[in-house]
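User: Second chain of the day. Same drill as before.
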Amino acid sequence: MVETIGAMETRRSFKGPDNETVFYIASPTANDIRGADWQYSRVYTKCLTEGIVTSAEMTDILKKRGITGSDYTVRLKELQSNLNDCIMSLNEAVNNDEKAELAIKVAESREGLVQWNQRLTGPMSNTCEQISEDARLEYITSCIIVDSNDGRVWKSHDDFLSVKDQAMSMKSRYEVMLYLQGYDSNFFEQTPEAIAMKEIELDILDEVNKTMAAEDDEIELVVEDSIDPAEFKSELVDDLTTKSSDEKGDKTDVAVSGPKKKPIKIKK
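Assistant: Same format as last time:
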């Protein structure tokens, strides 16, 4: 995330391991950069004296062992081409079922490419250059991570190295690496397969909301058309009261007038 702190100035922010506390990446000063370069040179020299191979030496070793070379390059291009084809197919998908299937294929193709690259990147991470580059990244990270009050999280590089909260130091290092390479913090959420899965999720939620809204309308219609229980009870009581009154009225009339008399016939 990028926060605007002035008319033109912005700064990168990220949440700590607790997913609540916000930290910021400040712009490195000239002294910070000089110190990071000095750290690189010092570690590189130490690696050489310790007998660690350089990247050029590691490349030769990998070629001699058949780990890299023409076959490695051919297979790498095949995997890259397969990934690009899957991404193009995903971009042309028209329905969610097709999107989901192709998104999985893209993810699998990307994972296969990463694993193949590990044949090279794994060994190369143990060279003088890469170890020194990691040391430079750690140094610059210790200098430019600040809190909400613009105070440095680590007062010195030694504090960064001796801190016990490894989760915070690793998180900060990762965020600074993305920052220096020009990537956003949500880099992995911006891949084609991640975007496609997010679109599918939103479509599903939209369908669920529409279905629930339709069911709510049906329930409301049924309630409006049905008889109110209280009103039904009141009408029933009125009907019973009226019927009872009518029956009493009939009995009263009989009591007052008496039984009907039969006509008397006179014999001649």
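DSSP finds nine helices and four strands in the chain.

User: Great, on to the next one.
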